[in-house]
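Sequence in, structure out.
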Amino acid sequence: MTNLLKDRIALVTGASRGIGYATAKALAAEGAHIIALARTVGGLEELDDEIKALGGAATLVPVDLRDFDALDRLGVSIYERWGKLDILIGNAGVLGRLTPVGHIKPKEWDEAFAVNVTANWRLIRSLDVLLRQSDAGRALFITSGAARNARAYWGLYSTTKAALETLVLTYAKEVAITPVRVNLLNPGATRTAMRAKAMPGEDPASLPAPADIAAQIPPLVAPALTDNGAIWDIREGRLVRR
């Protein structure tokens, strides 16, 4: 622990498992107070126990990211308690069904866009003013190589990630003259439940664990970061700017 993020307020979505869970712990280990968002209360409570064991603290927010009104209220609550937000990690996402484009059901399309794209836009809409109140607001959104590598049957997931990248890169340009910095991170293949669903025949032991990915994230949201509008890939355990 280096206290890289001492006294920073960090919001992490999808914090009850996988990369979000590990990232919340990694940021807490560096001194950040974690605002942890997820639907699964049990996972959030386990995270809270682990963060306390690290000597840190967390605020648990059980919420479905498709409850957009709740995301608006969240911004108000953060303002009333802290008056700012230092770090936003837009991690939560859904895979959707892997199927031919012509077989995607409208409900499936809407649900995937709601979580992967619209929820992140609503978070930006709700939290932008709070990031601007920070001396060094930092936002990092989790993307995927699927955003730029079209593959058969991956149309729904790929399209949502491509839309997310465009949204985030546009936002980065809009905050370029402010202290806020906005970037994207592609973790690559990781040992998560989503990956297991997408690649059921793959040996999970051959993939990096979420904690390996999370270890790369604190410097990407630290006050010293100067990059803005970057897409980072994790390759062989190293950060590479695309």
